[in-house]
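Hi R.,

Here's the input for the PMV complex you asked about:
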Amino acid sequence: MSMPRRASAASFTAFGPGKVILLGEHAVVYGEPALAGPLHRGVRAVGVPSRRCELSIPSSVTGSHRRLITSAFRRAARATGQPRVRVSLQSDLPIAMGLGSSAALSVACARVLLEASGRSSSADEVAKVALQMERVFHGTPSGVDHSTSAHARLIHFRGAVGKRAASIRSVASPRPLKLLVALVGERGPTHRLVSALRARERRWPRRYRRLFAELGRLADEGARAVATGDLETLGDLMNVNQGFLSALQLSSPPVEQMVHRLRRAGALGAKLTGAGGSGGAVIGLFLEPEPVVARLGREGIPCFGSQLAGPQAL
Ligand code: PMV
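And here is the predicted structure with PMV in place:
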């Protein structure tokens, strides 16, 4: 009879924050930098001792979504040596809205599995296991979602391309960086939007690569603006970024309406975040988002505030 592992003597709990991309979504898939930060909402994974390594998924999760989660978890379980733990999940993050719910789930599971197997659960190790899960969910993700969640910091991210390794740099903000996140209707899966853009990029590579390079420059400028506390410049960069996303056919009337509504409500900048499309999450950068969250909430718009960086973040 084998001795129980250290893991089976205790329960483990881990949080994977959701994420927002402030600047550079989609271009990041082509090796350009992006600026992204963690939300206070996310996925909590709890692991309790069990006879085998298993995931308990709420019965409300069905069909292809359930199959994907199961298969992603199996991959992470294999990567961490199948620790004897039963993992259950709780989430307060909207699914498939551009807020990194699959990455948050992957990070929370990866952290519990690593801790249960007595291995290092440093951000880098968590990110490695979470990436295996993200590949099941998204095929070939840029890595910005799970990296932001694993590091739980505002980061300037650049994915690996060819021989160039990925680079992840934490960006400190001297001022509170606060967002309003509004949810506007349904949107398609990330991979569909990414492949539609890929088809246009293949057809007109020079023009599209030029636009992606400019988006990367906006992300670089955004990181500098955050670091110097220049939120007004960050807001302007977000507005310009939204214009590019619209040019790339990644926006839609409901998204544009919310962007303009947030700007009218005093946002320093507003844009879609994540893959975009017919709906999803729209973010507005506000010095004080709370009164606007309360007002839009009274008008029936699902929204919440979150501080991404700066004093007292997360
Ligand atoms: O909408 P989300 O949360 O799946 O974010 C996708 C971000 C993209 O840049 C569009 C894709 C990627 O792999 O980075």
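One thing worth noting: The mean pLDDT is 94.

Cheers,
M.
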